[in-house]
Amino acid sequence: MTGQGTTAGRFSVDFVVANNRDVVVLPAGVPLLENVKHVTLSGVVDSGAARLVLPQRVVEQLQLQIDGETTVRYADQRRERRAMAGNVWLQLLGRHGVFSAVIEPDRNDALIGAIVLEELDLLVDCTTQSLHPRELDSILTEIE
What we know:
mainly beta, single chain, about 50% strand, two-stranded antiparallel ribbon, 4 helices, Cathepsin D, subunit A, domain 1, globular
């Protein structure tokens, strides 16, 4: 997936989010995206950031549950308290997982940090500003 809107090793990709509470009640074999309210949005891939960050409007659209708070530190070193949403079902490059997300009230796009990239086993290629699965057919888990 190639980047759109690139700056200094960061690039954007499109991905899908839904409320996992809606996902888990679907009967097996029922097409998820045809039967669950979801949002497709653009997210900045930033492997230097830890978490998933979602705009508040997306959290409200999907009726995601608020699940506590966290302190965030911005690039200018400001610190703020932000609410966290839980049970965020996310699909990116055909892979999916369930994550928590920091809620940003005035943000228009999302931020995809290292936790999502690691869980979905996606590698960042800064040269081509793209994401690639490490293994094409499955998520690889390394155990020592």
